[in-house]
């Protein structure tokens, strides 16, 4: 009986430790971009502040994961973050740098096209002539990325999100 | 070659214009002049052109960029003057234009425009066209004009012509016109038709200069546009990350004199491209 009790105690401790480790792992995933880089392509991006969802197969794909808001703290920071994510090959986090309405456009194909494009030409947005406006109650800064079309960066919940997949080649052919 | 054909077609038109102007001048009349500078009617560039986005992008002042262009042998430059209803007087002004004209180059303003605010765009374009030393204005119209914006294209061009009588007014857009059936090429052709600068960016597309040129010419022929063609190539890298070879850029230039041009004055972020400018066949 004593031995059985000891075994039960050990198992209980192991369960508690496992639970704590699991919680820690999930929390890290929400803070460390690299930790969530394996999220399924195409899964909708979730906001970091979203409440924990029940653990089901569906919601597992939507595990709260996001960029540190500092990485999108300004339009300039957002562009640098986008370039880093393109260079690093992280389409899931890259998707989160765009407005929700634009995010579905970030696919494996468009992500690869963007990676190629930013290697073809220097990305030197013309910030000096950027235009500040508002849209839907949000501040927007519109800037020309390559001298042609303007891309708007919308400040949503403290994060500046792009309203266009500016890195796709336009008009080719 | 269509380009030659069109240029040739334009040549006879221009010959008539020159003859008329000569007659007017002989009778004591004055030659045409736009508010900003000379109208290049019948003007044949001594050398090819170079597009400039903004001087900050080049890492140079206007004077430095002008001297670099002159040293390379550039014949004319196209400098961005604004975006839609915004005219950038701190960049495209008499002083910056004079840096180029004083070194023997013609200067054209180019403005990226969309159908969003035609009246505002007309005003901005007029301001740029009136800058002293400016030889003309080129409207850069691209994806925003696709999908049935013929009326806005016509209003934009006619508005600019009304605001700046005698202005030399061209447009630039997609290089392979056949892939853009809903772009109002014909509206621009009718109303902004002093020159069409098709962006035949073969390196960006990842095709050879010869196939890119050939397809562009074939599509231009099929489109039956009347505007003289001032064809543009690019020094952007290929999708594979390779820089276009100097020999290829030169082959394209050699085939498309005298009006062709290069997009764009390089950024120092691509250091190898600046010395390449001096190796190109600018002179016609």
What does this structure look like?
- The complex is a heterodimer of chains A (173) and B (284).
- Chain A has 173 residues and is an alpha+beta fold.
- In chain A, strand 1 (131-135) and strand 2 (138-144) form a beta hairpin.
- Chain A is 38% helix and 13% strand.
- Chain A has five helices and four strands, in the order H-H-H-H-H-E-E-E-E.
- A four-stranded antiparallel beta sheet of chain A has the order 1-2-3-4, with no helix packed on it.
- Chain A has a domain at 68-162: Nuclear Transport Factor 2, Chain: A, CATH 3.10.450.
- Chain A has helices at residues 2-31, 57-60, 75-88, 91-95, 108-120, and strands spanning 131-135, 138-144, 150-156, 159-162.
- The model of chain A is unreliable at 13-64 (pLDDT under 50).
- Chain B is an alpha/beta fold and 284 residues long.
- Chain B has a single domain (2-277), classed as Alpha-Beta Barrel (TIM Barrel), CATH 3.20.20.
- In chain B, strands 1, 2, 3, 4, 5, 6, 7, 8 and 9 form a nine-stranded mixed beta sheet that branches.
- In chain B, helix 5 (118-129) runs parallel beside helix 6 (150-163).
- The longest helix of chain B is centred in the first third of the chain and has 25 residues, at 2-26.
- Chain B is globular, with a radius of gyration of 18 Å.
- Mean pLDDT of chain B is 88; it is low at 1-37.
- Classes of the chains: A alpha+beta (173), B alpha/beta (284).
- At the A-B interface, helix 5 of A face loops of B.
